[in-house]
Specification:
Layout lengths: L4 E10 L4 E9 L2 E6 L10 E5 L4 E4 L1 E6 L4 E2 L2 E2 L4 H10 L2 E8 L7 H12 L6 E8 L4 H13 L4 E5 L10 H14 L2 E5 L3 H13 L6 H5 L3 H17 L4 E3 L5 H12 L4 E3 L3 H5 L10 H5 L13 H10 L15 H4 L19 H11 L5 H15 L17 E11 L18 E11 L2 E5 L2 E2 L16 H13 L22
Helix pairs in contact: 3-4, 4-7, 7-8
Bound molecules: N-(aminocarbonyl)-beta-alanine and zinc ion (3 copies).
The site of N-(aminocarbonyl)-beta-alanine has 9 residues, from loops.
């Protein structure tokens, strides 16, 4: 019998606002007590874990994954089983995945389909964002049902993938308006899909068929322009906006400036963008270069990752995800003669925490508390499951990681737990290693070994109107309504328009 009670002793409990030496007592999947020198005379079913000289942090929340996604003619290498197992091995205890209906298809059916696929397989808790890929009254109604009854409070709209997922501005306006109405966060994939389509044709016509064409056809300003447009549309309808996968300095600056202008907008850099760059697209070996293809692309400017990390440290950017959407080399090879056919996506779900510790905390850009904020608490606040997750506190879920900031590990496809056959962080040496991962009160990863079964994780229902975001929106709605100027009616002459040709 596995112990049902856990006592983590002697560690430093790190929350987003402070760090305190404390023990943590866990029972029935919940944190029951946090305090100094906890003692339990009745030791039956109790396991004590020594965390001396280690940090005890809230399990990571990856706000952006695509597990088991059918996309660009194939299906991701990592499914909900391998993907969530890998997450746990890396110190992530919850993922937010995307249910993406095809144009014309029901959002509710997509939700059901993703639930049926994921529920029996997930090894950690998860939730779903839903994509809005077309617009109609039915979509509008389904968004309401999802928010009111299905635990969904975030919808992703694509400004790219022309003819597949892309929405026009009027559709974005309608979708953002409905997000505001039902108390959801609007998320955008911000790239100008029309310009990408034109740019891709141009590159191919110039004989550029390799992975470098993927970046060349969609330079930074294509991302920055769409980011600005999304912010403008969201502000026009007073809807909170979350920009997924902010990949360039230009787009990050747009988000940062908008926050300084008082917009309710959040930017999400991903592990790939913080840990590596787009110079790989010019690598001589095709398979190596293709492995980094994702949209928006990694940027060839090598100062990009450091810049994104600076903005993340300063709260210009808010949350980290991975956009984990893995395709093995033979799948990438669908685009061996045409970069537009390379399935878009990279790994990250397993390595995000270590990459951010190494590039963010070990480098001195952020402290351990900001690390917790950007890897866990901020996502929980924005998507409304805080402090159920994202905090080590009484009554919070026992999703806890014992983190050794001094240990190092070398990332490699040879040792990772993901199903994909390469790793974009291959060879990267990272300080910061999860030594124990606890999910729902169970030790699921320890000493490099996983001990978890498919279906251990649960779907996390999220209520609409997260107060962290919506307090400001609601107040602006009250006080910010434009009103008409009261005037006497105009009583003068009016030109006759009949005589104008
Ligand atoms: O390349 C990417 N990002 N693949 C996943 C789909 C998306 O746009 O997030
Ligand atoms: Zn996207
Ligand atoms: Zn390379
Ligand atoms: Zn994505």
């Amino acid at each position: 019998m596995e112990p049902s009670r856990l006592l983590i002793k002697g560690g430093k409990v790190v929350n987003e606002d402070c760090s305190v030496l404390s023990d943590v007592y866990i029972e029935n999947g919940k944190i029951v007590e946090v305090g100094l020198n906890l003692h339990f005379p009745d030791a039956s079913g109790l396991r004590v874990i020594d965390a001396t000289d280690k940090l005890v942090i809230p399990g990571g929340v990856d706000a952006h994954t695509h597990l088991e996604l059918a996309f660009m003619g194939t299906k991701t290498a990592d499914d909900f089983h391998s993907g969530t197992k890998a997450a746990l091995a890396g110190g992530t205890t919850m993922v937010l995945d995307f249910a993406i209906p095809q144009k014309g298809k029901s959002l509710l059916e997509a939700y059901d389909c993703w639930r049926e696929t994921a529920d029996p397989k997930v090894c950690c808790d998860y939730s779903l964002h839903i994509a809005v890929t077309w617009w109609s009254d039915k979509v509008k109604k389904e968004m309401e049902t999802l928010a009111k009854e299905k635990g969904v409070n975030s919808f992703k709209m694509f400004m790219a993938y022309k003819d597949l997922y892309m929405l026009q501005d009027t559709e974005l306006y309608a979708a953002f308006s409905q997000c505001k109405e039902v108390g959801a966060i609007a998320q955008v994939h911000a790239e100008n899909g029309d310009l990408i389509a034109e740019g891709a044709k141009k590159m191919l016509s110039m004989g550029i068929t390799g992975p470098e064409g993927h970046e060349l056809c969609r330079p930074e300003e294509v991302e920055a322009e769409a980011t600005q447009r999304a912010i403008t549309i969201a502000n026009a309808v007073n809807c909170p906006l979350y920009v997924v996968h902010v990949m360039s300095k230009s787009a990050a600056k747009v988000v940062s400036n908008a926050r300084r202008d008082g917009r309710v907008v959040f930017g999400e850099p991903i592990a790939a963008g913080l840990g590596t760059d787009g110079t790989h697209y010019w690598h001589k070996e095709w398979a190596h270069a293709a492995g980094f293809v994702m949209g928006p692309p990694l940027r060839p400017d090598p100062s990009t990752p450091g810049y994104l990390m600076d903005l993340l440290a300063n709260d210009d950017l808010s949350v980290t995800g991975t956009d984990n959407c893995t395709f093995s080399v033979c799948q990438k090879a669908l685009g061996k003669d045409d970069f537009t056919k390379i399935p878009n996506g990279v790994n990250g779900v397993e390595d995000r925490m270590s990459v951010i510790w190494e590039k963010g905390v070990h480098s001195g850009k952020m402290d351990e508390n900001r690390f917790v904020a950007v890897t866990s608490s901020n996502a929980a606040k924005i998507f409304n499951f805080y402090p159920q997750k994202g905090r080590i506190a009484k009554n919070s879920d026992a999703d806890v990681v014992i983190w050794d900031p001094k240990l190092t590990r070398k990332i490699s496809a040879k040792t990772h737990h993901q199903a994909v056959d390469y790793n974009i962080f291959e060879g990267m040496e990272c300080h910061g290693v999860p030594v124990v991962t606890i999910s729902r009160g169970k030790v699921v990863y320890e000493d490099g070994r996983l001990n978890v079964s498919p279906g251990h994780g649960r779907f996390v229902h999220r209520q609409p109107f997260p107060q962290f975001v919506y307090k400001r929106i609601e107040q602006r709605e009250q006080v910010g309504k434009p009103t008409a100027v009261i005037r006497k009616p105009y009583a003068g002459k009016i030109i006759s328009s009949h005589n104008i040709r």
